UniProtKB/TrEMBL annotation:
Record's keyword annotation contains Magnesium: yes
GO CC annotations, alphabetized: acetolactate synthase complex
This protein's name: Acetolactate synthase
Thiamine pyrophosphate enzyme central domain location: 218-353
Naturally occurring in which organism (per UniProt): Streptomyces sp. Y1
Length: 617
């Protein structure tokens, strides 16, 4: 057996929720041992597709009363479904595939989970151990391929190792900084007879994630916070991963400091809260982007100074000192040096900070942010999020997405693909609770939304789940609607159909002289692609396609029909529903910081740069 380990991550999330099993020693095959191990760690759902090398595992899986297998239509769908399941439930997601192309089809969702710190375990079959390295049929070195994008991976050739490896894989995926773990098992190890022993003793002497922050650093951070004049609580997805949203709100309200939440942290702090400035970044709100730029203290919690947030790094927040708390020490100082580095789990960090800040208050030290809030409130009033109205009789995509959020409400789960519809969803849906927003933040994976929504609904069947997708993204993974229909997973899919690869088209409009090279999706030999084709020539017709896959297909083209169509979709609970929203193609995402430029160059709308009129400009 060979192993690979990457850096650890997040803290106290349990790998499973099953009661500790009694000591068991039995003789069985490696395949039976694998399924028994999955049962023992509490896995209840596996998304996958059988094939030759993994086939031995599928026979005992059929007999399991504890593990539900959902047969997907493509391995990429299995991986994103595992990610959606993990993000929605807080448990480890599981996907399974065979060797060679089955395993390599998991590479994209594994990379996606790695970038966004999502705990999944990917189990793949491998050719027999004696054939490894011979270029055997359907052989691929999936451990080598995924080494840079897994937190840890294993190649198992000894069936006796299976219980320990599975137990370790779930533990590693869920603790420290969460992430994907791959377990590749040779076919002969699955077929051989072995002795199953449980519980097992993990053998991870080098894996000790630090969760408790250093008290001196906490005290120093608290002093900086109460002495700052223009602080910002810069909140990343790590706060949600650590289940630390309650502590975040206590700290924010205790100090009165403004809060920004990154794309991965939406819902960590209520959008409706008066201290929330919105999302920072390339398409963030003007108050959020500007607050970071003009701050004198970035109080950073579970965020990684991503380039989409910082813009040109050397001009980012030039006046600010930095407190940076993260469970992964490799993130601290990676992009921006930290004046006070804090390694620890966000929940423990915040709990200790609350005590330390209160101690500063008790000693008579309390921050005065009145002047700062005067500026912030002025920016919020002057530069609110909004959008241009659609041409008469047409739907605007922002209007559609905002109305879905209003009608469906903050208790639902929303999964987005990547592109304009993703940004509009982040802007116009109000996120009030953690775990209600799923998207591909780091990797930007087109095709993420439908399978992620499927996984979320499988994990939380009582919760409404909506996929907000673009017509480009939808055509990458919509085959998983068949999986949803056959397995009783009634998600809703809103296709924001502008007939193009919208975000790429926006860049072509702004930076390529409106030369729309290969971004029009509906053009053909008899159509120039300038305007959407007539209804009879839609290629594909998403309503017909959805109906062919066992879903209810609806279409909405007029503003006056919007509410009725959304309500019609909401009333259907026995099948997936797809709504083809025909929107005008010239809508753009604003505000915007062009790639590679400074956040100081943010545009509120096309050609409109905010004028802050203060001495910090």
């Amino acid at each position: 057996m060979t192993e690979h380990a990457a850096s650890p991550r997040r803290g106290d999330a349990p790998a499973a929720h099953a009661p500790a099993p009694q000591h068991v020693v039995e003789t069985m095959t490696g395949a039976q041992s694998l399924i028994r191990s999955l049962e023992a760690v509490g896995a209840d759902t596996v998304f996958g597709i059988p094939g030759g090398a993994i086939l031995p595992a599928y026979d005992p899986l059929m007999d399991s009363a504890k593990v539900r297998h959902i047969l997907v239509r493509h391995e990429q769908g299995a991986g994103h479904a595992a990610t959606g399941y993990a993000q929605a439930t807080g448990r480890v997601g599981v996907c399974m595939a065979t060797s060679g192309p089955g395993a390599t089809n998991l590479v994209t969702p594994i990379a996606d989970a790695y970038m966004d710190s999502v705990p999944i375990v990917a189990i793949t079959g491998q050719v027999s151990s004696k054939a490894i390295g011979t270029d055997a049929f359907q052989e691929a070195d999936i451990c080598g391929i995924t080494m840079p994008i897994t937190k840890h991976n294993y190649l198992v050739t000894d069936p006796a190792e299976i219980p320990r490896v599975i137990a370790e894989a779930f533990h590693i995926a869920a603790t420290g900084r969460p992430g994907p773990v791959l377990v590749d098992i040779a076919k002969d190890a699955l077929q051989a007879t072995t002795t199953f022993r449980w519980p097992v003793e993990p053998q991870l002497p080098g894996y000790r994630p630090v969760t408790k922050p250093h008290a001196k650093q906490i005290r120093e951070a608290a002093k900086m916070l109460v002495s700052a004049k223009r602080p910002v609580l810069y909140v990343g997805g790590g706060v949600i991963k650590a289940r630390a949203t309650a502590e975040l709100r206590i700290l924010a309200e205790l100090t009165g400091a403004p809060v920004v939440t990154t794309l991965m942290a939406l819902g960590a702090f209520p959008d409706s809260h008066p201290q929330h400035l919105g999302m920072p970044g390339m398409h963030g709100s003007v108050p959020a982007v500007t607050a970071l730029q003009k701050s004198d203290l970035l109080f950073t919690l579970g965020a990684r100074f991503d380039d989409r947030v910082t813009g040109r790094l050397d001009s980012f927040a030039p006046h600010a000192k930095v407190v940076h708390a993260d469970i992964d020490p490799a993130e601290i100082g990676k992009n921006r040096p930290a004046d006070v580095p804090i390694v620890g789990d966000a929940r423990e960090v915040l709990a200790d900070l609350i005590v330390a800040v209160q101690a500063e208050f008790d000693a008579g030290h309390k921050g005065d942010y009145a002047d700062w809030w005067d500026k912030l409130d002025q920016w919020k009033r002057t530069y609110p999020l909004g959008h241009e109205p659609a041409p008469a009789g047409r739907l605007s995509p922002q209007q559609v997405i905002e109305r879905i959020g209003q009608k469906v409400g903050p208790d639902a789960i929303y999964a987005a693909g990547v592109g304009q519809h993703q940004m509009w969803s982040s802007q116009f849906i109000r996120f009030e609770k953690p775990g209600t927003w799923l998207n591909s933040g780091g990797a930007g994976t087109m095709g993420y939304a439908v399978p992620a929504a499927m996984g979320a609904k499988a994990g939380r069947p009582e919760t409404p789940v909506w996929a907000i997708d673009g017509d480009g993204c939808f055509q990458m993974t919509n085959q998983e609607l068949v999986t949803c229909a056959l397995n009783g997973i009634p998600i809703k899919v809103a296709v924001i159909n502008n007939g193009s690869l919208g975000m790429v088209r926006q860049w072509q409009t702004l930076f390529y002289n409106q030369r729309y090279s290969n971004t029009v999706l509906h053009s053909g030999p008899d159509h120039d692609g300038i305007e959407p084709p007539a209804q009879g020539t839609r290629i594909p017709d998403f309503v017909k396609l959805s109906e062919a896959m066992g879903c209810v297909g609806l279409r909405c083209e007029r503003p006056e029909d919007l509410d009725a169509v959304i309500e019609q979709a909401m009333a259907i609970d026995d099948r997936p529903v797809v709504i083809d929203f025909i929107v005008h193609q010239d809508a753009m995402v604003w505000p915007m910081v062009a790639a590679g430029t400074s956040n100081d160059e943010i545009q509120f709308a096309k050609g409109v740069r905010p004028d802050f009129g203060d001495d910090l400009d």
